[in-house]
Amino acid sequence: MQYDLIDLRLFVAIAEARNLTRGAARVHLAPSSASHRLRLLEASIGTPLLVREPRGVSLTRAGEALLRHARQVFAQLEQMHADLTPFAQGVRGHVSLWANTHATHTFLPDSLAAFLQRYPQVSITLEEHTSPYVVMAVARGEVDVGVVAESVAGADVELIPYRADRLVLIAPADHALAQRASTLFAQVLDYPFVMLHAGSAIHTFTMNAAAALGRHLEVRIQVRSFEAVCRMVSAGVGVGLVPLGAVPAGTSRGSLAVIELDEPWAQRDLKVCVRKREALSGFSAALLACLVGEG
To answer: Which of 19, 172, 184, 273 could form a disulfide with 146 if both were Cys (CB 3.0 to 4.6 A apart)?
Structure first.
């Protein structure tokens, strides 16, 4: 197959406009030139991409597939430009940091803001992954620094305490559980849950905890952030399991009840994960020091 980014941009423009002339205008090409390029693109791929209709065009199945992939290509290009821009603007350092959902949504925003205020010449790439995935990436040298809630047996990494936190149960203020100071996990499994999205560390952890008791959770809704979990629970959708650090400061007892979990696994302390502390580069070492309160 032979085609270039101009061809892909043209195809996306035509597909989104559902019209060859308007799509060509979006990428500043004459309709005749656009039509010629489109025919060459279809010949190169070996199948029609568009169905020409009296009032425009529609996508074939192949066209739908190409549109999906082309959008992903341009999204990756935009991310590449975003990653490279700081270097063109004179940023003199870069640190890659991976963290689990818990850390990303609770403590890291304040920690990273403090670090970047102190080191404005540094840029940070932050990615969210499960703790085991972060640990193994650090062990393989794929990432400089990680923040995790659990280790991986046999992984050759160092773990330094970052923040202490606990998982707690949250429930609507008028819920049957709201008056309890603490509860066992087994005692709440009959209630519907609001959960973080499948694939997140806490989703996997909670499902496994229920399975260990021979039970299955009734998941009423899945959302993308702890804030959304708290809001859904406050609205009466169900109960939730979140880190205490994710519960909004000053949460009113009038809208949300916080119940301690009387389980040994409820303690979910976060740790900074590095391959070898003494081998860290200057800015990675500075980030570590800032995270653990040494800088």
So the answer is: 273
Distance, in Å, from the CA atom of 167 to the CA atom of 106, rounded to the nearest integer, reads 12
CATH of the domain at 74: 1.10.10.10
Strands (DSSP E) contained in 173-288 are 182-183, 193-196, 219-223, 239-243, 256-261, 270-274
Task: State the pLDDT confidence band at 147, using cuts at 50, 70 and 90.
Answer: very high
The residue-averaged pLDDT of 69-91 equals: 77
Q: Are 108 and 22 part of one and the same domain?
A: no
User: What pTM was estimated for this model as a whole?
Assistant: 0.65
Indicate if 127 and 186 belong to the same structural domain: no
Averaged confidence pLDDT in the chain: 90
Greater model confidence, 251 or 207: 207
What is the count of structural domains for the chain? 3
What token pair was written down for 205? 């952890």
Helical H runs in 18-159?
20-26, 31-45, 61-88, 101-105, 108-118, 131-139
The phi, psi pair for 146, rounded to 5°, reads -130, 160
